[in-house]
Each structure stands twice: as structure tokens, then as C-alpha cells.
Amino acid sequence: MAHERDIDALTGTATTGREWDGIRELNTPLPRWWLWLFYLTIIWSIGYWIAYPSWPLVSSSTVGLLNWQSREAIITDMDALKAQRGPMVERLLKSSLAEIAADENLSQFARAQGRPVFLENCAPCHGTGGGGARGYPNLLDDEWLWGGRLEDIALTIRDGIRTPQSKERQGTMPAFGRDGILKRPEIEAVADYTRTLAGIAVESGANLELGKKVYAEACANCHGADGRGKRELGAPNLTDAIWLYGSDRASVIEGLWNGRGGMMPAWAGRLDESTIKALTIYVHTLGGGVR
To answer: Which of 84, 112, 171, 277 could be cross-linked to 233 through a Cys-Cys bond (beta carbons 3.0 to 4.6 Å apart)?
Structure first.
């Protein structure tokens, strides 16, 4: 509600004439120093508009009197960083993976180079710490579907898994149920049997005898008669507690029914050779690399 301006009896300050719920607004001006500072920022912004790129045009922007570009500054800094790292990068290119791992200085440089590459390209699937997730392998343990030696890791990074470039790593698990290879009771029985290979307790009514028979006929060729897997095929070890898609009965049955065959992209061509070597060393030293 608006009222005529009057003087507040307590402070002696004129009011603005605005009142709400019995509270009147005092007409208190901003401090003089604050106003001058505000005016100064306006003048400063005008100078900034003139000196630096600021106003967008149809297909570009004004360049400013100083003709300074942040992009050019970044390029200059990156060129300086490449020049600084040049000798060590050259050593990476000329050294074998075993030589890099044996040289403490070169190995430290490779890990420092490999970590940001891992975080940018690998962490979305394997996690920032390499711990993996459902369907994405844990890089911290000592179980490797395709081998954990330096050469194995480098090949995986270069060519990927189940890509056109990866001629050696195309193995997939068939869809036994969806493609009519096995009947539902057989899939349930072999799911129970494979879980016992890892020491997992199953229900008392499980038909383990049928499961063992189906396993020998349909699974042993890839996972081995003892269930320890074959790395040349990417067939996992079924006797440990590490299950990529989960070890509960429903997950195992779903995998047998629909099959498994995750893909990892090929990084050759996206990453240069020195970067691939650095990334290989970094992944190998996360904790699960095989010597």
C-alpha cells in the first residue's frame, strides 16, 4: 500500500512512501563510494569491449584492439608443453613396453601421461579408479579375459574387442536360449551347475546332473572342462568369485539365454603410439597387471 512520504520518527530518515504489513521503507541512498565503484566497473567494461574480443558478429566476433585470442594462448601453451615433453615422448616411442616398465623415470613419466588419458577415454566404462562395473571389467584384480601382460593390454587398447580391427578377439558367447540351442530346463540346470563351480550354493532341487552333462556338451569347449576359461577365446574363469555380469541365478540364466559379447572400441588411430604405450603402463600398474 502506498502512502505520502513522511519522516521516520525513530531514525529521522524520510520514507519512500511504500508500506507493507505496517513496515515502512526508509529512503536510504547507497553509499557514495559504492556508487563510484559501480560507475567505474561500467567504464572498465566499455574498455574491455574495445580491447578484447567480445561482440558476436554473423560468422565471427570482434577481435579487439589488442587482437588477443584465448585459443591462440592455449595453442602456444600446448606447443610449449609438447616441446618440454618431447625428449621423454621420443624415449617412449623408441623403447619397448618391457624397457619402459624397467626404467623408473620413464615408467613414472608414462604413468603421468597415461592417467589423464585413462580418465578421459576409459573411466566412463571402467570407472575413475579402474574398478569397473556390471559388464565392464575390473582392472584392479588379476583376472583378465584376454590376458594381463603388457603386450596383451597394448593389443586390447590398439585393436579393441570384437571390432573389425580385432581379428584375434572376436569370441562371443552364443544365445543358447534365444537361438533354440538349449531348452529352458537345460539352461536352468547348467546355470546352477556353473554357479557351483565357483562355490556358490544353489537350491536343493537343482538338477546338477543334467547341468553337468549340458556343460560338458555346450560350455566346456570354451570355458574348459574344469571351468577355468580360455583367455585366447575371451572365455572367463567360472571357478572364481569374479562374474562380469553378476553371479546370481537370474543373471546367469539371462546370459545363457541371450548370450554375451560386449565390445571395446579400438583406440589405434584415435591415440598415437606414445600415448597407447603410456596408457598400457598406467593400466598395467593399477594393480592387476600380470608380470
So the answer is: 171
